[in-house]
Specification:
The complex is a heterodimer of chains A (351) and B (327).
Chain A (H helix, E strand, L loop, with lengths): L15 E5 L6 H9 L10 E2 L2 E2 L10 E4 L11 H11 L4 H15 L14 H13 L5 E5 L7 H18 L2 E6 L2 H7 L2 E6 L2 E6 L1 H6 L4 H6 L6 E10 L2 E6 L3 E2 L3 H10 L4 E5 L4 E3 L9 E12 L3 E7 L4 E7 L9 E6 L5 E4 L5 E2 L2
Parallel strand pairs in A: 1-6, 1-7, 4-5, 5-6
Antiparallel strand pairs in A: 2-3, 7-8, 9-10, 9-12, 10-11, 12-18, 13-17, 14-15, 14-17, 15-16, 18-19
Helix pairs in contact in A: 2-3, 2-4, 3-4
Chain B lengths: L1 H10 L5 H35 L1 E2 L8 E2 L3 H8 L1 H32 L6 H8 L7 H11 L6 H8 L20 H11 L3 H26 L4 H9 L4 H29 L3 H6 L11 H11 L3 H27 L6
Antiparallel strand pairs in B: 1-2
Helix pairs in contact in B: 2-14, 3-14, 4-5, 4-9, 4-11, 6-9, 9-11, 10-11, 11-14, 13-14
The chains are: A alpha+beta (351), B mainly alpha (327).
């Protein structure tokens, strides 16, 4: 059983690096290998210039925040935070100074004498963070640290983690399955799937130019519209025939498609790039005719599913526009917003 | 509401609700009431009764003496001696059995191929009866042909008169100090022998109990400790032991109750001797009641033992519950 294969990643010093992927993709395994809790069957792990394959977890000078927080239930908050310092034989006064400093950073000064069981989820989360940051290790490893919190708390902690990262200037390696966490906090994101690295880049790069169909589908909510298409020439004019419309890509993109020799392709359109249109316009890459099928209002915006004769599309619109169910709608997309993927390999076609 | 009040009157006869519930419950309780009544409550009441009376060896011609027998027993030197022997026996059996059981459980909790075999071996003493255990140790500790003395000799140590040497528990001592001194320097080998057999017998159970306790400790706590810089020993000291405290507390209560109730191994190995060196309270009750036929005096000791056990259990809960960590 292989959890990860041939993963090569370089996390820069002081970077907030996110490992993103669905459950079972190997992201946690990657983190645990970095921490020394699991041994890779092959490959090398460096921290700085030091090869740490043979270095046990306790000597790697890393800190880890667990999804379950893993606080010691028999110790007070103070002793939980002090634990790592005690293991490393800090002096009593030094421990006291560092613990209080850390508690102040995280706003848990009032809780120092309590036991973890007497704390709320958010407070336990802070203590777990405190235990990690108090030692100022070489890197912070975080395994889905926010997934046990309620939605509101999660948003708050997200902002706080970013602030913490800025203040500490530490190297963060953060594992999550939540793309919102990855997009909002990560300076760079690595997307993993079935033990394979799919793409590494800034959140914006990964969003704007997904390397393959998996990343295209996984990142973005609502997900990117993907339409199977066949490259054809109609009256000498190149284009892609999908079930519901003829799509005309930019000439440059078509050239890459032809060069790649793909027999079938997938057209990807982000929901925000579809716009309701009245008339025909040659500037559009494609126009789709359909009816409003489902409207999900989020208050500030709405996600509208439009049923086409054969498929369907999702688009994102401002909340103001009223769209009765069943009303006809004509959607258009600009050529610059078309993304193309090779249907067989799943790989992105074009820049 | 009207329907509810109307129905009983229609039936003609009405009982209050609690009474009707009790009537319904009684058939279900009857089997345990009969069993407990016959084998627990009746003997208990009878013991209390016997404690207040003097009877002839056949239990006839009973004379009420009130607390006189309690005073006699509680002030007798043989009772004091059997108390000290019992306390020593408890110390000799509970502490080593839990320590060894914990050690074996930690070994057996490793994730290694074939570890199940070791778990079975470590807990196997649970399956051997008191009589088998006692006979086994009788052979091991035999003064001339026993393996124990062979080993001592091979190691260049003097032989020990295991079951025959009563040590501090035998002979005259002048005052408490000399007794305490003797306790430390003049080992009561007979009691130690019985204790070794008992420890061997109980280790299996404690291994299982502690193993179960170990398996409830979340793996992340260890991982967290390792990342925090703890080695194997400190992992054990700072994570395993505190997380195991409820289990060890339970084991200590059970072990103490076991120690106070030990009978078979003493009967087979030493019969309480030499003199009274291994005469724990329970064995002394047996001797008093079934060899000397002093049912009254035996009952008094039984009641005193009951009160001591109750007191000790309450004390253990008091003292330890504050330090024991429950999730």
């Amino acid at each position: 059983m292989l959890a990860l294969s041939a993963l090569t990643l370089e996390v820069r010093d002081g970077e907030f690096f996110v490992l993103l992927g669905p459950s079972g993709c190997g992201k946690t395994t990657a983190l645990r290998i970095a921490a020394g809790l699991e041994e890779p069957s092959e490959g090398s792990i460096y921290i700085g210039d030091r090869l740490v394959n043979e270095v046990p977890a306790k000597d790697r000078d890393l800190a880890m925040v667990f999804q379950s927080y893993a606080l010691y239930p028999h110790l007070s908050v103070y002793d939980n935070v002090a634990f790592g310092l005690r293991m490393r034989k800090y002096s009593r006064s030094e421990i006291d100074r560092l613990v209080r400093e850390t508690a102040a950073t995280l706003g848990i000064q009032e809780l120092l004498r309590r036991r973890p069981a007497a704390l709320s989820g958010g407070q336990q989360q802070r203590v777990a963070l405190g235990r990690a940051i108090v030692r100022r290790p070489q890197a912070f490893l975080m395994d889905e640290p926010l997934s046990n919190l309620d939605a509101k708390m999660r948003v708050q902690m997200r902002a706080e983690l970013v602030r913490l990262h800025r203040e500490l200037r530490g190297t963060f390696i953060y594992v999550t399955h939540d793309q919102v966490e990855a997009m909002t906090m990560g300076e760079r994101v690595a997307v993993l799937h079935q033990g394979l690295l799919q793409q590494v880049g800034t959140p914006q790069e990964v969003y704007d130019r997904p390397a393959n169909l998996f990343v295209a589908e996984f990142i973005g909510s609502p997900a990117m519209n993907l339409l199977e298409a066949e490259p054809v020439r109609v009256d000498g004019q190149p284009g892609l025939r999908t079930a519901d419309a003829f799509v005309r890509p930019l000439a440059a993109l078509w050239a890459v498609l032809e060069a790649a020799g793909a027999r079938s392709a997938v057209v990807g359109i982000r929901p925000e790039h579809l716009a309701p249109q009245e008339g025909e316009n040659a500037e559009f890459a494609a126009c789709f005719e359909g009816q409003v099928d489902l409207v999900e209002s989020l208050g500030s915006e709405q996600h509208v599913t439009v049923a086409l004769p054969r498929g369907s599309l999702v688009l994102r619109l401002p909340a103001a526009r009223r769209l009765p169910i069943g009303s006809p709608l004509r959607l258009a997309v600009a050529p610059v917003h078309l993304q193309l993927f090779d249907a067989e390999t799943g790989r992105r076609i074009g820049p | 509401m009207t329907a509810a009040t109307a129905r009983p009157s229609a039936r003609g006869r009405t009982l209050p609700r609690p009474a009707r519930q009790l009537l319904a419950a009684l058939p279900f309780l009857a089997p345990s009431i009969v069993l407990f009544g016959t084998f627990v409550f009746y003997p208990l009441a009878k013991s209390v009764y016997l404690g207040f009376h003097i009877s002839d060896p056949f239990g006839r011609r009973q004379v009420f003496v009130g607390f006189e027998q309690y005073v006699d027993v509680l002030t007798s030197s043989s009772f004091a001696s059997s108390l000290l022997v019992t306390a020593t026996f408890t110390l000799y059996t509970v502490v080593p059995a839990i320590a060894i059981g914990t050690f074996l459980a930690v070994l057996a909790n490793q994730k290694l191929p074939g570890i199940v075999v070791f778990r079975t071996i470590f807990s196997s003493t649970l399956a051997s009866s008191v009589a088998v255990t006692a006979v086994l140790w009788l052979v091991l500790l035999h003064p001339t042909i026993g393996m124990a003395n062979e080993l001592l000799e091979t190691a260049g140590l003097p032989r020990v008169a295991w079951l025959q040497d009563g040590g501090w528990a035998v002979g005259e001592r002048k005052g408490v100090l000399s007794l305490v001194g003797a306790w430390f320097i003049d080992p009561n080998w007979a009691l130690i022998s019985v204790s070794m057999a008992t420890v061997w017998m109980n280790v299996g159970l404690f291994t299982i109990i502690v193993l179960a306790g170990l398996q409830t400790i979340p793996e992340e706590l260890y991982e967290s400790a390792r990342v925090d810089g703890a080695g194997r020993w400190r992992e054990f000291w700072h994570v395993t032991l505190p997380m195991l405290s409820p289990t060890l507390f339970f084991a200590s209560v059970v072990g103490m109750l076991f120690a106070f109730q030990s009978f078979g191994q003493i009967q087979i190995l030493t019969e309480g001797g030499p003199v009274d060196a291994s005469n724990v309270i329970l064995y002394s009750i047996y001797q008093e009641g079934f060899q000397n036929f002093q049912k009254g005096a035996a009952s008094v000791q039984a009641i005193v033992l009951f009160v001591i056990l109750l007191g000790l259990t309450l004390l253990q809960f008091r003292l330890l519950s504050g330090r024991v960590f429950y999730r």
